[in-house]
Amino acid sequence: MRSYQPDLTPPWKRSAPVPEVPAEPDLVVEEVSTGFCGAVIRCEKTAQGPAVTLEDRFGKHRVFPMEPRGFLLEGRVVTLVRPSAGGPVRPARTASGSVAVPGARARVARAGRIYVEGRHDAELVERVWGDDLRIEGVVVEYLEGIDDLPAIVRDFSPGPDARLGVLVDHLVPGSKESRIAAQVSDANVLVLGHPYIDVWEAVKPSSAGIAAWPVVPRGQDWKTGVCRALGWPENTGAAWQRILSTVHSYRDLEPALLGSVEHLIDFVTAPPE
């Protein structure tokens, strides 16, 4: 018969117990040793023990052992465990990956705005970030191009309580768009963009059901050229609805667009300094 061995460790040196949390799909946690933050994709058994795969907002995957006290959940240390059938239901998440707030009412619209170049850009932003934008009270408006961006900014009259964020297509060094964006220097305006010729390309090809976005020769209308190359009817409006229908969450979009949109939302919702 084993004799009882008391724990002689001083109380101030003992590790406090931490909660065990089922690693349900889409649960967002941070791995303590690396700081990698992502949503749970799957759990699996390995030769070294149970492991969890996380996916960050840019689509990068990493596998971590499910060690005790190995993760942070909303800033608290937790131990991830494999989920059991019929476990508790976790909070739902929005298409952008944020925790959904059931029954939340839309906030009264802020004075600040986010401008995007066209209707397709606005529809894509609404599809993924719409729930977040309504809770934050951020209105997205679309422009017919940005050729007159400096005048548009002046007419908006941005200020600390009315910041303006602008999302620009094809914002790469040397482009016409980059030269126009450089003319805007107001501290209450943030101009960001993505490298794609059109926001269509910000949808991952795998999500859109194609191998890759076609290369369209210079001088051709890009959207029409894409339809021709893919063998789709040359109806760009119908083609866009086909593409948009394949977007269900942030995972269907390229990181270059994700980072810019989320940065713009943070910018226009930040409290005045």
TrEMBL record:
Tell me which positions the record assigns to the signal sequence: none
Give the DUF3097 domain ranges. Answer: 20-83, 113-269
Coiled-coil ranges from the UniProt annotation: none
Q: Superkingdom of the source?
A: Bacteria
Pfam families the record matches: DUF3097_C (PF11296), DUF3097_N (PF22845)
Q: Which InterPro entries match?
A: DUF3097_C, DUF3097_N
Protein name stated in the entry: DUF3097 domain-containing protein
The species this protein belongs to is: Streptomyces pulveraceus
